[in-house]
Amino acid sequence: MSTTAPPLDHTDPPGAAPRGQTEHPKAYYIVLMVALAWPTVVLSMSGLLLGNAQGLIAQHFHTTQIAWFTLITTLVSTMSVPFLIKAADMFGKKRVMVVASVIGVVGETLCALAPSWGLMLSARFLVGIYAVVTALTYSIVRDVFPAKWVGTATGVVATSTGLTALAGPWLSGWLQDNHGFRGVLWFLAVNSFVALVLLVVFVPESPLRGARTSFDWIGGLLLGGSATALVYGIGKGSEWGWADGRTLAYLAGGVVAFLAFVVVERRVAHPLLPVRLLADRRLLMILLASGAGAGVLFSAGTINQLLALYPKIPGMSDGLGYTATENAALGVHSSILLLLCGFGVGWIANRWSAKITLVTGLAVAIVGLLVTHSYHYEKWQFIVFGPLFAVGMGLVIASGPVLIVEAVRAEDQATVNGVNSLIGGVLSAISTQVIFSVLNDRANVVQGTSLYTDGGYKAAYTAAAAMLAAALLLALFIPKVRNAAAAAADSPVATPR
Prior knowledge:
Membrane topology: Multi-pass membrane protein
Organism: Yinghuangia aomiensis
Radius of gyration: 22 Å
Strand order of the largest sheet: 1-2
Distance between the termini: 26 Å
Keywords: Membrane, Transmembrane, Transmembrane helix, Transport
Subcellular location: Cell inner membrane
Number of strands: 4
Helix content: over 70%
Shape: globular
Pfam family, one: MFS_1
CATH superfamily of the largest domain: MFS general substrate transporter like domains
Number of helices: 17
CATH topology of the largest domain: Growth Hormone, Chain: A
Largest sheet: 2 strands, antiparallel
Structural class: mainly alpha
Oligomer: single chain
CATH architecture of the largest domain: Up-down Bundle
CATH class of the largest domain: Mainly Alpha
Low-confidence stretches: 1-20, 484-488, 491-497
Strand content: under 5%
């Protein structure tokens, strides 16, 4: 898979528009930045808003399978994004973004209207296609902005996601407390439609095209089948029994499908995963450690959301029964710290290496989970100990992309970032299902809805910490890499292994 577009002709004067394009007034580029940042903010905001709303959704539809509300979207986006990025290279980035946005708007609208759990999951399947828009946004910025605007535009799009950490909790609280989960779903549907209109009206098509090559359909089906079988088998293990033949069949089938995927990737001309790059032990360790770390951390955040927002019913449910607004207030300082971590990672990476921040982040997050395991009953405990998890998460999320910059050549950056997203998505889906399986093992089912006990929350914190410990072990064995400043300068000096 290649996600790198052909470079622009360097004979263009510095700061000029790409050859064949007209230089526009400043106002045009400001509007263009807004049009590209809008869907990025909506997509990042949806994770927080829906994470907070899923407790109400589970209780409304009386389902014990609420994990699939996010899992199905994660799986679809993880498996579809590589194909859609390749299609964008061949047929046009804007064209693919528009098609994915239309599908996303339809999916979000159906979610808001869904009268049944089955239709809700079908709609969430469609929403998974929408995730490619963010992946393509950064690429199209480089293609349609003049050189002097590229850095500014990329920074605006990237930092716009900070609105999620700052405004997201408050918005989520207001919507959920005043309009219920339907209000959250309608907010996302309306803003997805606005993003589509801005994209169609203001964003030009990229003038760059990649070579038309075949799609690795077999590899995609095997990887998708492997991830789905593993996730489904883990989810059903607590219901069927871990030694049950059906559970073992799904788990074994997932492993066999993955092994077949590896064989196929070594043989096809244009693999979904570039085997030549993954043969580098350093890069493979980076992708596994950062992908597993980020995936588990996103999954572990679900525990806090469920604990805070589920009702407190003596003998049945050990949730804390906070409103969404109360929950937002408890975590606002942690959100700010999470944002600041990105600056810290950049400073350290330029002097030493982002391996330091990755290892530190994983260790701090593990401590945060273990402390929360024992202290999660009072508001002051979330205020005091919550920043540990937030700082750990911020360091890990910011370190992965920087480590990739440090480890691979410039021409392989886009491809490897796509692989990192793919691995992170699969591992996030698996870790999410592990956490929900642990919760469900100690849940009480009332009117078709799982209500979680304190023992379940404690076991979930322990499971998340154990998975992060595995990621930490991988991170410790990452071979030495260049610092970010040397990598950015494309230093020809070989990196010690």
